């Protein structure tokens, strides 16, 4: 009886430890078990201030170098219609290999639920890219939001190419 009680308490303690670590370490990495988006298409993200509902925050979307097979003349971030937060186009930044890239223009089309980012010079193929959305107002209610990232290459017919999706959890 004493041995089974010790085993049971050890299992309970292990479960508590694993649950505690996964909640802390995975909350900011953008890790999702079930989403409908293939693992290869999921992009990492991070909130600088915790991603709480009805608050101001900074979102960092990361596009790995293997996703950029061609140079990038335009980045487009689309988000769902039910996302009721806001963005500050003047506070959007793009970093390539850790260095800020000068932007020609940033357009936020509220009706189309999209943000278009135009760098002054094309981003080279095979670069690690980080898109930083500062002064982002979170929606009043938390939830899961799919932020899709697409690109347009220089000289392309104006058709965006899907790069991946960041499955953003707010208020969790």
In short:
The chain is of the alpha+beta class. The protein contains one helix and ten strands; from the N terminus they run αββββββββββ.
- Structural class by helix and strand composition: alpha+beta
The N- and C-terminal alpha carbons lie at a distance of 40 Å
What is the CA-atom radius of gyration, in angstroms? 19 Å
Helix-strand topology string:
HEEEEEEEEEE
Strand order of the largest sheet: 1-2-8-4-5
Which percent range describes the beta-strand content? Answer: 35-45%
The helical percent reads: 10-25%
Number of strands: 10
Can you give the mean pLDDT? 83
Low-confidence stretches: 1-32
Topology at a glance:
Elements lengths: L1 H26 L16 E4 L8 E8 L10 E5 L13 E5 L2 E2 L2 E7 L4 E6 L9 E9 L5 E10 L8 E10 L2
Give short descriptive properties of this protein.
single chain, 172 residues, alpha+beta, 5-stranded antiparallel β-sheet, 1 helix, 10 strands, globular
């Amino acid at each position: 009886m004493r041995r089974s009680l010790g085993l049971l308490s050890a299992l309970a303690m292990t479960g508590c430890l694993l649950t505690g670590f996964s909640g802390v370490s995975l909350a900011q990495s953008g890790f999702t078990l079930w989403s409908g988006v293939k693992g290869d298409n999921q992009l990492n993200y991070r909130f600088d201030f915790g991603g709480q509902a009805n608050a101001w925050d900074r979102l960092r979307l990361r596009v790995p170098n293997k996703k950029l097979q061609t140079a990038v003349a335009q980045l487009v971030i689309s988000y769902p219609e039910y996302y009721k937060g806001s963005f500050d186009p003047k506070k959007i930044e793009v970093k390539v290999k850790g260095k800020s890239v000068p932007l020609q223009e940033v357009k936020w089309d509220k009706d189309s639920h999209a943000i278009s980012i135009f760098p002054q010079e094309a981003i080279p193929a095979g670069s690690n890219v980080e898109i930083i959305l500062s002064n982002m107002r979170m929606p009043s209610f938390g939830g899961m939001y799919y932020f899709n990232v697409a690109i347009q290459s220089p000289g392309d017919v104006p058709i965006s190419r899907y790069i991946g999706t960041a499955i953003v959890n707010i208020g969790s």
